[in-house]
Amino acid sequence: MFAIVLILNYIVMRVLFVFLATAFVFSACNKEVDSMKTNSNNKGEDSIEEISFIEYILTDSTCYWKNFQNNEGHSSELIIINNYDELNNELECEEATDESEIDFSKQTLLLTRGVSTSSDAEVLDVQLDRVAEGTYALYVKVRRGKALTPGPWAVAIITQKISDDAIVTLNVEQIDN
């Protein structure tokens, strides 16, 4: 009987040792990962920050955005506009207009446009993130309509000043109706 108690005690101690050793290893790994996260944030690396904006709508019915020219096989494009000359290069107007509501000394207009598989596509959502200093990501969600012919879509937003040499990546998600 004494031998059985010793064997059971030995087995319980081994199981307990394995359990405690495993818990210690996982605990040490979590502390190391948390430490790495803290250290990377202390090194000045940027975290993703959502940037506020307002949608820019052409209120003058005589102006519209030039259609996207799909010359290079892409289905969408993004244009950083930092002055009135650049803005006027992207507009078609039947008569002269004054689009003075943008203060290009403090603001940038981001114009994105593309072609959807349906002519009645609708832009559902737009989000602008700063992923690092001078690097941004613009996310656009476009809902395809039921029309069977391809058609253009466009959205423009006014946001804080973004330099001409900034990197802005465009991510377009087209979803079905």
SSE pattern: HEEEEHEEEEEE
Kindly name the structural category.
alpha+beta
Report the helical percentage. 25-40%
Rg on CA atoms, Å: 28 Å
Number of helices: 2
Strand order of the largest sheet: 1-7-8-10
- Biggest β-sheet strands, sense, barrel: 4 strands, mixed
Give a description of the structure.
This protein has 177 residues and is α+β, with helices and mostly antiparallel strands. The protein is 27% helix and 38% strand. The chain has two helices and ten strands. The model is unreliable at 16-44 (pLDDT under 50).
Question: Which keywords apply here?
Answer:
10 strands, 4-stranded antiparallel beta sheet, alpha+beta, 177 residues, 27% helix, single chain, 2 helices
Describe the structure concisely.
The protein is α+β, with helices and mostly antiparallel strands.
What secondary-structure arrangement, pairings included, does this model have?
Layout: H1 2-42, E1 49-51, E2 53-55, E3 63-65, E4 76-81, H2 84-90, E5 91-93, E6 107-116, E7 122-132, E8 135-143, E9 151-160, E10 167-175
